[in-house]
Amino acid sequence: MRALLVDRSAPAGLRLGQAPDPEPAPNQALIRVTATSLNYGEVRFMLQEAPDGAVLGWDAAGVVERAAADGSGPAAGTPVVTLGVAGAWAELRAVDTDWIGTVPAGADPGAVSTVPVAGASALRALHRVGPILGRRILVTGATGGAGRYAVRLARLGGAHVIASTGDPDKHGDSLRAAGAHEVVAGPQAVGEPVDGVVDMVGGQQLVDAYGLLAQGGTLVAVGHSAHQGENFPFGALFADNGRHDRSIVTFSLPECSGLASDLTWLAHRVAAGELEPQISWRGGWGGAAEAVDALLQRRLHGKAILDIA
After folding, report:
1. I need a surface site. Which of 18, 157, 216, 225 has the fewest CB within 10 A?
2. Where are the bilayer-spanning segments (predicted)?
3. Cα(218)–Cα(184) distance, rounded to whole angstroms?
């Protein structure tokens, strides 16, 4: 099969080449990939650490080529969206059926391919916050792929949504269109306490956002794009003066159960136009180096899609 292979002698560390077809385990389906979405984490960290010849990639949409031998998961010919720890940047991938969501016929594979990491991370983060109807929710790093999903999902869940971005003048209109009630230039610009935070940035922004939590509030640490540690000043973790029972929580998406139903639900919302993935770059195999460079340079505000023909 054709695949994007790690090759440190090539532009962006990738070249188009041939790789062996994957051999699915009994609980895995073989997927013919039609589109994959790139994530900052995989091009920033996984691409640098993987050996030459490896096939990377977390997100992919496509069609079931061969159903799982154990009878689980969708039948052959079913349009699907898939999550995995590798293998998405290829014509074929083997995927655990627990990580396969079904997709409505006729849906755009590129748009749907944005669902697994960005959409499911945002959805699970909001689950960890708890009931959000009528509550104030802050999303930091709101212009990224997962951030935009969090803004829209929080709005659909009935929250008052505050979107934080480094450039409100540039991104304010698109974030309000996604569902934000307020757009601010960082947590320090939020005037009142919030009930929950979905943090995509880490570092000082996480520290500042935690200080905004009302009693019983929860901050979910999802992203770490600041590449900084979190240094809390003395007193930040005191629980007096209305700061009782505040929490910081984390989660690992591959460790979550029930992802197949999450992926299916999200894919249907994208297909129906209820969720907008905000595709910022789209192209074929040959554009992979350009897309990777744009992600690493933080020039994209949204998702990058590779269509695999």
Report:
1. 18
2. none
3. 20
